[in-house]
Specification:
Blueprint (H helix, E strand, L loop, with lengths): L6 H4 L13 E4 L10 E2 L6 E4 L15 E8 L16 E5 L2 E5 L23 E2 L12 E8 L25 E7 L5 E9 L5 E2 L4 E5 L5 E5 L1 E3 L4 E8 L4 E7 L7 E8 L2 E2 L6 E7 L6 E9 L1
Parallel strand pairs: 2-9, 10-20
Antiparallel strand pairs: 1-3, 3-7, 4-5, 4-8, 5-6, 8-9, 10-11, 10-15, 12-13, 12-16, 14-15, 16-19, 17-18, 17-20
């Protein structure tokens, strides 16, 4: 990619208005998926910005622009990324990641490698980042527009926001490295006009415990044991929100949203609260939505 003017490296530009739309997801170098977002090594993990697996045609990726990413523990308290923010910038064009910046000599050679073009653009390697202090091997990847980043781009960290990130302007996705236990929230959409058949391409918005959001879509991949679900991997301890909306292909029935088999009291489109307990070591929490 071409270089930004040097002044843009010293401080991030004035914050942009409005929340960030679209989604991010973690993947491998060729843009294909990994089963339940569990990776064998930290070097295997890449970031993609796009509608993500299962998204219907025309679903929006990240808005075009320049972004900064980081890796933290699931709580966001510990910054694990180890290089300057200038080295963690990527470009979105046409809704796809198209490249990175070299950071004017601040960056380590052979880091943030680019993968091959796949769903969501060209994946960007997240390394270098430290091991998570989380006992479950869980990490959180973040992305935000450069204009909403609060730290100097020449710094690795600062005291503003969450390591320079603001919740309202951040997209996040969780992943695991070197673990086998699965902890997840899966949302399924049922077609009441077709015997309750599961519907692919239906979207949810996930808000994590910090108030950051990301979009997920239901889809099927037998090889990865993804069974017509909108999948949230490795949700951290605390309260998560899953937003269920009416959309093309699903008008939410009244009295028809279930949490682990229990009918919820609210009717129609709603926000489902899911509490993840520290005692949940290997669990799938299902949200089932009836559509007509």
């Amino acid at each position: 990619m071409g270089l930004l003017v040097f002044g843009a490296l010293l401080v991030a530009s004035q914050a942009n208005g409005g929340q960030v739309t679209g989604a991010i997801f973690t993947t491998v170098a060729d843009g294909s998926e990994v089963n339940f977002n569990i990776y064998a090594a930290k070097t295997d993990v890449y970031l993609n910005g796009g509608p993500g697996p299962g998204a219907p045609a025309g679903a929006a990726g990240l808005p075009d622009g320049i972004y900064v990413f980081m890796v933290t523990d699931p709580s966001g308290k510990t910054l694990l990324s180890q290089d300057a923010a200038a080295c963690r910038r990527f470009v979105v064009s046409g809704g796809n990641i198209t490249g990175t910046f070299n950071g004017y000599g601040l960056c380590l050679t052979g880091t943030h490698l680019l993968g091959t073009f796949g769903n969501g653009g060209i994946p960007v390697q997240l390394m270098p980042y430290a091991d998570t202090p989380n006992n479950g091997g869980e990490y959180k990847a973040w992305a935000t527009p450069v204009g909403n980043y609060l730290c100097p781009l020449t710094a690795t960290d600062c005291s503003s926001g969450v390591h320079g990130f603001q919740h309202d302007f951040s997209k996040t996705d969780n992943f695991k490295v070197k673990v086998s236990a699965v902890r997840e929230i899966d949302t399924r959409f049922h077609d009441t006009n077709n015997g309750g058949a599961l519907i692919d391409g239906m979207g949810i918005t996930w808000f994590d415990t910090l108030g950051n959001s990301n979009n997920k879509w239901s889809y099927y991949n037998q090889a990865l044991d993804v069974n017509h679900e909108a999948h949230v991997e490795s949700p951290e301890n605390g309260t998560h929100q899953i937003v269920i909306r009416n959309q093309v292909g699903c008008t939410v029935d009244g009295n028809s949203v279930f949490l682990n088999g229990q009918l919820l009291p609210n009717t129609g489109p709603q926000t489902v609260t899911v509490k993840m307990s520290p005692s949940y070591k290997n669990i799938t929490i299902f949200i089932d939505v009836n559509c007509n």
